Amino acid sequence: MADMKKDEIAEDQELMGEDEGLEAEILADEIEVLRAERDDMRDRFMRALADAENIRKRGERDRREAEQYGGSKLARDLLPVYDNLKRALEAAGEEQRAAAKALIEGIELTMRELISVMGKHGLEPIVPEIGEAFDPQLHQAMFEAALPDTKSGDIIQVMTEGFMLHDRLLRPAQVGVSSTPRS
């Protein structure tokens, strides 16, 4: 009987040893699963963090662009007013200037104020000079003509000034360009 008890105890110890081994194996598997979940969650967290940072940067860039270029439609609509005031001043001869001195001064003051306001909001004129080289980034060729004593691509006439809004072209300057002179 004592031998039987020893055998049972030995069997129980053997089963307990197997149970502990099995338990350790299950714990190791659970630890691996938890590590994999942790790594997956860390990866997802880092991606979400990077996405949030990208969204913040994009929002900041969009806000700056809206601030700088949001008024481009209004600015574009004001350009004909500038053109008309300029034409009115250019059309006034000496007789008209003498006869309507106050009116001409009023137009000049309005023109200066308009230029000042446009400059304050980043709207700068592009004023090409005759003889300057044609730049397709800033100028729009309205016609091409062969003109003696000019090089091909030189500006020979300026119809309207162009305008930049900060670093963007709002309207190209409209110019006439020289073609290769014919012999």
Distance between the termini: 133 Å
Strand content bin = 15-25%
Which consecutive residue ranges, at least 5 long each, have pLDDT under 50? none
Largest sheet: 3 strands, antiparallel
Order of neighbouring strands in the sheet with most strands: 1-4-5
Counting DSSP E segments of at least 2 residues, the number of strands comes to 6
Descriptive terms for the model:
183 residues, alpha+beta, Nucleotide Exchange Factor Grpe, Chain A, domain 2, 3 domains, three-stranded antiparallel sheet, 62% helix, rod-shaped
Characterise this structure.
- The chain is of the alpha+beta class and 183 residues long.
- The N and C termini lie far apart (133 Å).
- Helices cover 62% and strands 18% of the residues.
- The longest helix has 68 residues, at 2-69.
- α2 (72-91) packs antiparallel against α4 (101-120).
- The strands form two sheets. A three-stranded antiparallel β-sheet has the order 1-4-5.
- It has four helices and six strands.
Topology summary:
Blueprint lengths: L1 H68 L2 H20 L2 H6 L1 H20 L2 E4 L12 E8 L8 E6 L1 E4 L2 E4 L1 E7 L4
Parallel strand pairs: 2-6
Antiparallel strand pairs: 1-4, 3-6, 4-5
Helix pairs in contact: 2-4
What's the quick description here?
Helix content is 62%, strand content 18%.
